[in-house]
Amino acid sequence: MKKTDELKIKLKERDELKREVAILRRELSGLNSKKKDLIEIIKNHNRKAEDAKAKRDKFNSKIQELKKERTTINSAIKDLFATYKDLRQGAPNKDFKRMEMELKRLEWTLQTRVLKVEKEDELVKRIEELKADLRDFKDLIHLSNEIDSKKLKSKKIHSKILGYSQDSQKHHEDFLENIKEIRAIEVKIDDVNKEKDGVTTKLDEVKEVLKSKNALVKEVSSTLESEEKKRREKSTEELKKEAKLVYERFKNGEKLSTDDLFLLQRFGQL
Fold first, then answer.
1. Contact between residue 10 and residue 213 where contact means Cβ atoms under 8 Å apart
2. What confidence score (pLDDT) does residue 43 get?
């Protein structure tokens, strides 16, 4: 095989390798971009997860504070109820709560209805009797009202705890959902990394082959240049000999062509 043909083949093979390197580099660049996009998605989910966690923890903190407050109130209710029981044992054997309800009902009737004088006097008398009887339950009534007030407050706190618990659970679920998404994307990133490793290995192999191919191209090119140089040197010697012959013809008075004249001029014969 001629060296020129060999060089053409080597150059073609080198160009194919260069194209393959370019393709692999584009593929690697695409995988890097894909990985970068996935990392940005993870960052976004991380921000959402951190936000959800902060909100969840905030509600949990409020819940703990409310639970402490409720425990304090319930403890106070327990103490008040113990005192109430002691007082109840020494009080008259009457249902003061029913008496209070009756008193309120009669006072409302007296205020809102037009009654006959006899009926009104009867109501006023009964109201006074109830007030007199209820004075014996003054301390019990005070304790009962305080217990009821604290029970109501405890109930309201319990309702708040339930509401905050629902809010906390919602944010906790958001947190878990974002963590789940992050884990799924991390798997995708692992897959991309595996693809990158494969492409990188292939690229390194092709680059190594290309390096060897470039060396062969350089070697063949160098051989061709050397041969061309020898060919040029040989041609010069041959042209010098031809110029001498043309010069002899010139001296003999022969007619010369334009090329003959250029040849003589080239080698200083004119």
1. yes
2. 97
